[in-house]
């Protein structure tokens, strides 16, 4: 008889953790009877027909932080009752608020195996001295140790929990994110009718917000000043209008294009020449592995955490580049927020086809390590 597994996450709206859950559902469904427990009825990813769905609430995304905090024990109680009523054997919770709720359910008496998954670098996200950051840091220190096991999706995230939140290293394991390689390859072949690729094309994919630091990318592209190039930015976010104004100010609006969010970004990536990533911080940037799958050479900032583990797996995950560029095993790393180093890396990729092709060839071998079947097997060892 299959064990009953509950997977708790806020929603399946477009996002990294949400995509991971959609891939895991497919990889785990043959071994477990799975119920996907959501807090909002937003689903942007395919869900296998065998998966049951349960809502413990239909949350308002604009709900005030104090209301979210006060509701945690109540939602923990609801989740406890759901698990008991449905004879759930194992709980897996992903992202902060669902993790808090799962741990409150344990405080309130739920006695099942409870695993949580950290998808980001909390010390970076909650670096400010605001009340919200202070509360989240307290909740992480208090609640995370109550789990049976913590799955970090990168070594950097694991070290962050140990060093900055005092969590026992023996409680944390690292399992990288799973990818449906075959599906990405298939989607990358679809046609495009809104962009022409008659110039050397740099492409970047991600939320248009301060953390992704697209301004750095635009500044470096301006400095590069190669007329036969264009930069595509796929994604939506709070800084889009501001960055569009910056592009107009620099008179780059005929060479820098904001494409917006696309359900299938891979078709744009596969037709480009080089992937560029300018984040200030990450958990595990899925898009770098997706760029590998689309046969792209990759440039990334050496931010905490994830890029170094993906592009330079034989090096110390705790090291962070501070100057110049690093031609690592599977791509080029640059310091965070360093315009001149990003420009240098982009110039290298533009001018040296042999370097680009070397990375494309190597990355075809690298992506097999992130195949959903291999990663799902790692999860099964701990569930």
Model description:
The chain is of the alpha/beta class. The protein folds into two domains: about 5-175, Rossmann fold; about 180-370, Glycogen Phosphorylase B (Rossmann fold, 3-Layer(aba) Sandwich), CATH 3.40.50. It is about 40% helix and about 15% strand. The chain has 15 helices and 14 strands. A seven-stranded parallel β-sheet has the order 3-2-1-4-5-6-7, with helices on both faces. It has a seven-stranded mixed β-sheet with strand order 10-9-8-11-12-14-13, sandwiched between helices. The model has no long low-confidence stretch (mean pLDDT about 95).
For the record, the CATH class of the largest domain is Alpha Beta
Whole-number radius of gyration?
21 Å
Overall morphology: globular
Tell me what portion of residues adopts beta-strand conformation.
15-25%
Major β-sheet annotation:
7 strands, parallel
Architecture of the largest domain, according to CATH? 3-Layer(aba) Sandwich
Instruction: Note the total helix count.
Output: 15
Q: How many structural domains can be distinguished in the coordinates? A: 2
Query: Would you count the extended β strands for me?
Result: 14
Q: What is the share of helical residues?
A: 40-55%
CATH topology of the largest domain, anyone?
Rossmann fold
Low-confidence stretches: none
State the order of secondary-structure elements, H for helix, E for strand.
EHEEHEHEHHEHEHEHEHEHEHEHEEHHH
Q: What's the mean pLDDT score?
A: 94
Distance between the termini: 15 Å
Order the strands across the largest sheet as they lie in space. 3-2-1-4-5-6-7
CATH superfamily of the largest domain: Glycogen Phosphorylase B
């Amino acid at each position: 008889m299959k064990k009953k597994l509950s997977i708790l996450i806020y929603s399946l709206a477009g996002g990294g953790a949400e995509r991971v859950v959609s891939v895991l559902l497919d990889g785990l469904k043959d071994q477990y009877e799975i119920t996907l427990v959501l807090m909002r009825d937003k689903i942007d990813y395919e869900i296998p027909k065998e998966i049951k769905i349960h809502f413990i609430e239909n949350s308002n995304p604009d709900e005030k932080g104090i209301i979210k905090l006060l509701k945690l024990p109540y939602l923990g109680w609801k989740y406890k009752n759901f698990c008991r009523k449905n004879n759930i054997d194992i709980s897996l919770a992903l992202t902060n608020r669902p993790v808090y709720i799962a741990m409150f359910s344990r405080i309130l008496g739920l006695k099942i195996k409870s695993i949580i998954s950290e998808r980001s670098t909390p010390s970076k996200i909650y670096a400010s001295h605001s009340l919200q950051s202070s509360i989240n840091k307290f909740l992480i220190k208090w609640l995370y140790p109550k789990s049976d096991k913590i799955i970090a999706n990168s070594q950097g995230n694991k070290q962050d929990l140990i060093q900055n939140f005092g969590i026992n290293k023996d409680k944390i394991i690292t399992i990288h994110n799973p990818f449906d390689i075959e599906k990405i390859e298939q989607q990358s072949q679809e046609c495009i009718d809104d962009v022409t690729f008659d110039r050397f094309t740099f492409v970047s994919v991600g939320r248009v917000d301060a953390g992704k630091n697209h301004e750095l990318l635009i500044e470096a592209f301006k400095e590069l000043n190669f007329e036969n190039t264009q930069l595509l930015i796929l994604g939506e976010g709070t800084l889009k209008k501001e960055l569009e104004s910056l592009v107009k100010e620099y008179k780059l609006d005929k060479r820098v294009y904001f494409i917006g969010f696309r359900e299938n970004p891979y078709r744009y990536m596969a037709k480009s020449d080089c992937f560029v990533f300018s984040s200030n911080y990450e958990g595990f940037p899925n898009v770098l592995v997706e760029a590998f799958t689309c046969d792209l050479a990759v440039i990334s900032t050496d931010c905490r955490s994830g890029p170094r583990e993906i592009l330079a797996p034989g090096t110390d995950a705790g090291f962070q580049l501070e100057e110049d560029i690093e031609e690592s095993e599977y791509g080029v790393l640059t310091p965070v927020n360093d315009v001149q180093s990003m420009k240098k890396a982009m110039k290298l990729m533009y001018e040296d086809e042999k370097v680009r092709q070397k990375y494309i060839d190597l990355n075809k071998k690298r992506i097999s390590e992130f195949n959903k079947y291999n990663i799902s097997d790692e999860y099964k060892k701990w569930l």
